[in-house]
Specification:
With 265 residues, this protein is α/β, with parallel strands linked by helices. The chain is 51% helix and 15% strand. The chain has 10 helices and 7 strands. The protein has a 7-stranded parallel β-sheet with strand order 3-2-1-4-5-6-7, with helices on both faces. Belongs to the short-chain dehydrogenases/reductases (SDR) family.
Length: 265
């Protein structure tokens, strides 16, 4: 390895950090009409990506896209059920038809149906696995098939700290989010020979409408478990998604990044 080769990588890193990190890229973000998904889509658009927002409600997806467009970004919205294979195919085709490419996918869509195992119904167990795990698999399969042909692409799957430690009342959610870790690592190894990267994020306690409405005593108990001593912001999850989607992480695949403030480390 020559001195010139050694110098070239830092030079490129400097270029990437001073320019939009996703300029010219087309990205799909599922479950992006609100919350963490919308923040990821917004940050991607700020960094030059053309973003297709996917949500169960097409009106909500398009409304979110309009917000990004009004702020100077490029976005469109589409309604789809990520647990439905034909809907997932429609999402991929819509991205290709709208933006002419598909370079990044963030599998963020998810639902919760919390209850203790004694009280949880089979329907609620299956519903969470269908959306959170099967939906992630379907989108990874469809996007991966296209990305391997172009020999480039980045897929970011949203797991959860619940999938690492298991939380009371979340046997369905913990199982699905743990499954996403296995799916991420296996699909990353299948797609790596085709220069497609797959990584996962495990958020902890993040400031969303759900946590804002949390009972004060429960929130205080959870805060005591966080070494950094505060709830995370959606923008802090979005920043990690941006890194994993961008050239800054060009040698990163099959990883799971915890965004938890140190909780359950």
């Amino acid at each position: 390895m020559t001195a010139e080769t050694l110098l070239s990588e830092p030079d490129r890193l400097e270029q990437w950090t001073t320019a939009p990190l996703l300029a010219g890229r087309a990205a799909v973000v599922t479950g992006a009409a609100r919350g963490i998904g919308l923040e990821i889509a917004t940050v991607f658009a700020r960094h030059g990506a053309r973003v297709l927002i996917v949500d169960l409600s097409e009106d909500d997806a398009q409304s979110a896209a309009n917000t990004i467009t009004a702020a100077g970004g490029v976005a469109n919205g589409v309604g789809a059920d990520v647990a439905n294979e034909s809907d997932v195919s429609k999402v991929v085709q819509t991205c290709l038809d709208t933006f002419g490419a598909l370079d990044v996918v963030v599998n963020n869509a998810g639902i919760i149906r919390d209850a203790t195992m004694r009280k949880m119904t089979l329907d609620d167990f299956r519903a969470v696995l269908e959306v959170n795990l099967t939906g992630t698999w379907l989108m990874t399969k469809a996007a991966g098939a296209m990305m391997r042909e172009q020999r480039s692409g980045a897929i970011v799957n949203m797991s959860s700290i619940s999938g690492k430690v298991g939380l009371v009342g979340q046997t369905n959610y913990s199982a699905a989010k743990a499954g996403i870790v296995g799916l991420t690592k296996a699909s990353a190894k299948e797609l790596a020979p085709h220069q497609v990267r797959v990584n996962a994020i495990q958020p902890g306690l993040i400031l969303t409408p759900m946590t804002e409405n949390m009972r004060e005593d429960i929130r205080e108990a959870k805060l005591k478990e966080i070494p950094l001593g505060r709830i995370g912001r959606p923008s802090e999850v979005a920043a990690v998604a941006l890194f994993l989607a961008s050239p800054l992480s060009s040698y990163v695949t099959a990883t799971v990044t915890e965004v938890t403030g140190g909780r359950h480390a």
